[in-house]
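Postdoc handover notes: sequence design on the structure in folder B. Input tokens:
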């Protein structure tokens, strides 16, 4: 028999509660199916097709697009695409590491402030979200121009030639990437730092633990959940970034996201762009799996 339940003062049954829950989650499920799962599934048959003479999709299934991705084309082998894949992983990894190094002191600095002032500093961390990423990237072009203080200081220190801009180049790319993704690392890390139990840190110090042991045994285990979320939120979108490398990096920092953008919008080669997108998705899932496994197996004892 279907038992009568009391739900916030309302008499109902388990079946009605289940139906109500299904109706509540149904719009979100339909949204994910329509705009995430279904387009992802359509990428696979599209990646096996070919581009026609006028940019149309020709449904002659083959693995030619994946061979092109590996560097095998009509003119022979070229490692440019493979270098773009490796460069994408390298830029995403270094960006995540730089954001992590900067996020720790920022999170602890905000935690050390009075409760009333913490919201002010958190709002400053959120300021980049108030402006579009493209506008922020163009702003970095202005800030790194030859007549700006950054370029003049670099020239005075002998790090750049006088009268030369600091972009395009690796420095400009990492500056743009870190400024774009630093809030994604700071916010979840701060959420863990704010709830940190100081008594555990003091216990490590009472046992004559040095600064390294205090961090490894007293701080890191407590902030590891926020740290994991921050790494995921930084590394995954950094893999697909193409605006910052395109505007600040030049030809030497052509990443996989730039290849996808070029395939879809410049060459009008949708099958090749679909193959590139699938590879990017696989790299993203692989990165999530590796980090999840590492997070489970890490030993801080």
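Designed sequence:
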């Amino acid at each position: 028999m279907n038992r009568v339940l009391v739900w916030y003062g309302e008499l109902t049954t388990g079946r009605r509660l289940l139906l109500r829950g299904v109706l509540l989650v149904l719009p979100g499920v339909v949204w994910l199916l329509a705009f995430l799962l279904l387009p992802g599934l359509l990428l696979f048959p599209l990646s096996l097709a070919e581009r026609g003479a006028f940019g149309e999709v020709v449904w002659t299934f083959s693995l030619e697009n994946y061979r092109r991705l590996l560097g095998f084309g009509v003119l022979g082998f070229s490692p440019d695409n493979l270098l773009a894949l490796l460069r994408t992983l390298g830029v995403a990894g270094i960006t995540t590491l730089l954001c992590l190094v900067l996020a720790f002191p920022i999170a602890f600095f905000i935690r050390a402030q009075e409760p009333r002032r913490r919201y002010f500093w958190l709002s400053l961390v959120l300021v980049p979200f108030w402006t579009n990423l493209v506008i922020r990237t163009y702003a970095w072009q202005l800030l790194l121009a030859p007549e700006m203080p950054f370029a003049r200081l670099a020239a005075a220190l002998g790090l750049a030639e006088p009268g030369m801009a600091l972009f395009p180049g690796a420095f400009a790319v990492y500056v743009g990437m870190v400024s774009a993704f630093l809030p994604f690392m700071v916010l979840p890390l701060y959420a863990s730092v704010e709830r940190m139990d100081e008594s555990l840190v003091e216990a490590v110090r009472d046992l004559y633990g040095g600064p390294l042991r205090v961090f490894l045994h007293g701080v890191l285990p407590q902030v590891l959940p926020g740290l994991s979320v921050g790494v995921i939120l930084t590394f995954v979108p950094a893999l697909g970034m193409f605006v910052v490398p395109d505007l600040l990096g030049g030809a030497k920092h052509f990443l996989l996201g730039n290849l996808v953008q070029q395939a879809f919008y410049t060459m009008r080669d949708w099958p090749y762009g679909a193959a590139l997108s699938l590879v990017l998705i696989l790299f993203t899932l692989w990165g999530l799996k590796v980090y999840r496994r590492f997070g489970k197996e890490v030993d801080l004892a």
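Context for whoever picks this up: Residues 14-47 form the longest helix (34 residues). Don't rerun without checking with the PI first.
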